[in-house]
Amino acid sequence: MSYTLKNCRLIPELSGQHHLTIADVYVDEGKIISIADPDSHTAQGIVIDCKGKTLLPGLFDLHVHLHSEEEIMPTAANHFTIMKKAMQSAQLYLDYGFTTVRDMGSTNRVSHAVREVINEGLFIGPRVIGGGKIIRPTSKENYHAGDSFIREVTGHNEMLKAAREEFAEGADIIKIYASGSALQTSGVPTQPIFLPEEIRAAVTIATMEGKKVAAHCHSREAINMCLADGVYTIEHATYVDDEAIEILKTEQSYLVPTLTPMHHRKPNNRDPKDDAILEKKLKVLAEASSKRLRTAYQAGLKMGFGTDVSIHSFSNRIGIEFKMRKELCGMENIDILLQATKYSALIAGLEGVTGEIKEGYEADLILMDGNPDQDLTVMYEKPAIVFKNGIKVV
Ligand SMILES: [Zn+2]
């Protein structure tokens, strides 16, 4: 199926600095074929009038958990239920304009199964980068989680084995937990929890596989340890310090902040006492991350875009990560849009494939009603149209 998206408004920074700001974008066989002056050619295929709307590259969420609608941990469920929920999540991501998601830990490695049904064309969903199970050090924090989502290791050898097994099971990237958790009452986010040799073991195996390691890190020490040992993405990055920012400027590693859960967390309906503890803890983290990520942004770092909340709760907080980055970290609209598209594509290894509107790129496109570079609240709504690989899904 081919389409002409007629009279779209383009944002130069997201469109390879294309000289046209109003253009007809022709899509065929999954690709962006041409970007042309609306007055200088005849539209082909199905014509969609996009006047007054801005065409953006499909969005990225580099920190999702496809498995569950629960806020924190999945409840025990059978494989079918987990798969069904993960597929529902995948579908919702597309509805909200996310054409690529990176799963940072899923129950029974369901992200890989979802990725396969999408890649085989059995189901239309976003491009999925699967992180498998989260590798964490043995600790009491894990006992909330059950073993379907987390695997415990202690020491270099166990890490080698875990990393090898996760890749053998189909992981595109390894996710490790390098500092205490924010969302579990017993976690101490300022505390590193892996030894350098354990982190190095994960990176060694990933490098042999031609792949990368992502690390959950709030703590300053954990962030610096991970950067020194070759971890590729620092998730959350709450206490990123000046030393880390200097290293990150070399663009060997990147930050994937996730402000949403720190500021907008629903009570977990477990123990009200736990909720009070978490609320207090998250407030401290929110203040620290706003300050430190503002500094990292002002230093000019290219960051990824992640949310780390269940897509099922997006209906009451769509666009919240955009809003948080702007209001709490003072980021410019265009930079947040770059984070959610071009920079995340670079971080995901999809530069030159998607993340920009350029001829020859995958036709992952969303049409927004208004000018999001001038008014970011445009991103607080669902897209009017979503294309994934040239297929109109919304
Ligand atoms: Zn997460």
Automatic annotation (TrEMBL):
Matching InterPro entries: Amidohydro-rel, Metal-dep_hydrolase_composite, Metal_Hydrolase, Metallo-dep_Hydrolase, OTAase-like
Top-level taxon of origin: Bacteria
All residue ranges annotated as the Amidohydrolase-related domain in the record: 54-390
Pfam families: Amidohydro_1
GO molecular function: hydrolase activity, acting on carbon-nitrogen (but not peptide) bonds
Entry protein name: Imidazolonepropionase
Annotated organism of origin: Amphibacillus marinus
Phylogenetic lineage: Bacteria, Bacillati, Bacillota, Bacilli, Bacillales
